[in-house]
Amino acid sequence: MTVYSTTFHHNGWSFNAAATRNGLCYLGPHHLAANEMKPFFQRYLPNEKVEENENILTPYITELKEYLEGNRQEFGSKVDLYGTPFQQQVWKALQHIPFGKTVTYSDIAKFIGKPRAVRAVGAAIGANPIFIIIPCHRVIGKNGTLTGFRGGLDMKKQLLWLEKGENK
Q1: Local confidence band at 71 (pLDDT 50, 70, 90 cut-offs)
Q2: Less crowded by CB within 10 Å, the N or C end of the chain?
């Protein structure tokens, strides 16, 4: 199997993306890609060839651009998630957070039936390999504060503003 990757820029946003034939497997901020993508591939896809190919990733990039322009609220592209069963459970729960809404880490822990696993939920959210598409930016602290995000808190704030239709 081949993993296809690309870097793309759009209106001041920069991302790295990767997909297998089964769907998008990685999406992250470009500034972290050097530290994240190689270890991700080594851990989950160690025997796969990685090939730069923007054309394969065009459907995913198109949806992300539409979202960033305020013209898309849901993503229809397939994802190919790699992680522990617990992480996968948390990431699936994240996909139920409606566009423009926020929930807390406690809410996600309750949603998956593990209300006491808030810290583990936080760790799983932090390990989300497909940010934005799997909307970890919609999770906030119990007191309403913005908390950790791979893209940085400024990016998280911008994404939440975009979803609420507010100007930056």
Answers
A1: very high
A2: C
The torsion angle over the Cα atoms of residues 130, 134, 135 and 139, rounded to 10 degrees, is -90
Please list the active-site residues.
136
Residues 94 and 34 reside in one and the same domain: no
How many angstroms separate the Cα of 118 from the Cα of each of 39, 92, 123?
26, 16, 9
The whole-model pTM stands at 0.89
Q: Are residues 89 and 41 in the same domain?
A: no
Domain that includes residue 91, residue range: 85-164
| Tally of domains within the chain | 2
- Residues 54 and 102 placed together within one structural domain of the fold: no
